[in-house]
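Internal ticket #5521
Category: modeling
Description: The requester needs a full-assembly model to guide mutagenesis choices. All entity lines are attached below as received. Residue total reported by intake: 708.
Assigned to: D.W.
Attached entities:
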Amino acid sequence: MDITTQNTDAPPPTPQSTTAELKRAARGATRPGDRIFLGLSRGSGILLLAIMAAIAVFLTYRAALAISKDEGNFLTTFEWNTSGPEPVFGIAVLAFGTVVSSIVAMVIAVPIAVAIALFLTHYAPRRLSGPIAYVIDLLAAVPSIVYGLWGALILVPQLDGLFGWLDAYFGWTGIFSWEGGPARSMLTVGILLAIMILPIITNVSREVFRQVPQMHEEAALALGATRWEVIRMAVLPFGRSGVISASMLGLGRALGETMAVATVLSPSFLIQTSLLDPGGGTFAQNIASKFGEADTFGRDALIASGLVLFVITLLVNGAARAIIARRKEYSGANA
Amino acid sequence: MKLQRMNRRALTLGALAVSGALALTACGSDDTGNGGDAGATTAATGSIDCGDAKGQLLADGSSAQKNAIDAWVKQFTAACQGVQINYKGSGSGAGITAFNQGQVAFAGSDSALDEEEIAASKEVCQGGQGIDLPMVGGPIAVSYNVPGVDNLVLDAPTLAKIFNSKIKNWNDEAIKKLNPDADLPDLKIQAFHRSDESGTTDNFTKYLIATAKSDWPYEGGKAWQADGGQSASGSSGVAQQVSQVSGAISYMELSYAEGMDVVAIDTGAAEPVKASTEGATKAIADAEVVGQGKDLALEINYGTKAEGAYPVTLVTYEIVCDKGNKAESLPATKAFLNYVASEDGQGLLADAGYAPIPDEIIAKVRTTIEGLS
């Protein structure tokens, strides 16, 4: 019996069929699952482009309506009064405030976030790093209006001391001079934004630092490097583009933050040379505070300012991508 | 492998974040204010004539009169069970926009319709147009926080100079002259204004323009125009700053100024006038109807020297169509506005920090409501 079966010339699984299958798989979608998945992902990609295009068209159309009626200069007017007899509005103050507050936030948040991420991945004992990571994640889940209220009620009164100290020792720079009064300025906004963008930068950096190939670190250690030297020579160069992407995510959040800024800033249509004096404003804050009472024209004007924020965000993201593309060999995304 | 591990981790984190966010938002979205707060419906509801009002009445507009509307709605819906009234206080501008798009039966607004808005309303009100019905007066109090000074008197030019950063210190000569007995400290003035566009700002600056033109050279409007000074969002925002910051001064609706020192304004009458609902009613009595036809838009006489009249007062309107209201909402609109303009309705206002509209004008409002179609 065994012999008969052995003698049948039923073909065993031949190498030909396997290669054919492989070839088909390599050609792309042939089996239904592949085809459906291809269709879904391609559709999603196109949908995203369509949504972005729809937003851009809507913003541009409404913005054009408003700008054509603007009695001032859209780019240089230091005023926002759309309900008066001669409507004027300009984005100079908003663009300045948005950029400055975000830069302040980045200057404060990025080093701290990177330090936390390094601590969690390379210094903290496992038992500690888990809970800390969860707490940082929770920071991201707090609604921004809660940050705003906390900032207005608790942070602002506490900042008087810091502002006084900055004014006393660095007032001569002009950037840190202070006239007194409540600490509701661009620096306050920057500090609050820094706290708000900390979680996202920390989390992404942490994941990137965790991806550093073990062998790089071990090689460095074998050459006699200290832990700090390992971080400086192996971890940081490998993680740089990841940290840049993380920072850009944070920057995106800072650029668009609305309620927290509206709650802690004392906005006005002035550009202050000092970071400590009240005044200025950001795009999102201005839209939030003016939208409720605005008439149709006023809303179009706010939409025009939103378009500028849209463009600034696109530029920032483009710049970030360019930086990362130049450092592709280290990119965590391609590893 | 690593990727997979990372993804699962990311998924758990994501799930945690999502559930956390859901849990947090679940607590925050419960603000449909017409739930039955027990004990609020004690007042007599006998005078409310429901007519054949029924169904849901949508309205939107000024947040300044939101508390008044809430009080009225409580009484009205207790008497007329078949009617639901939903007033969203999203702001005068939003209210007028919604009205002119036909989304709401009436809108609340801090300022009367302008020509463009009336023209736009003709499309919604077939055969008619939008008209303003003055329903609520609101005194705008100027409150301040100066240690040791509790009876501050200011006049219009001084107020204008303070808010225009021309007077920078509390022991300035101009303030001393108006307050010879007060012990004014050497303290920097922190003048707060609204950072959002607001009918309160509009009416406060209208007062300054009318009474102190040379010290207040701006054209007015809902947005603050003077440079300098500090700002905060909403009446509650400026009120909080005034109570927190030493040397602060700001303007706000009277109900927000509770517990704070309030400026008495030297209007030229024998006695300086403090913000009060009676004072506001007296000032509105001095106002002139400037609306055309059935429109009852008022122009307040800011320069009034009448005894006890408080001139820094805003009037908020309900905006309806004089003709061409939607058939399904007309009975409810008429019944509700009738109640609002009635003696009982106006009588509720003072308790909520608002001023009733004086008799002569409210009588015209009642006649106009009868004629709505």
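Resolution: model delivered.
Comment from assignee: The CA atoms of residues 166 and 172 of chain A lie 10 Å apart.
Ticket closed.
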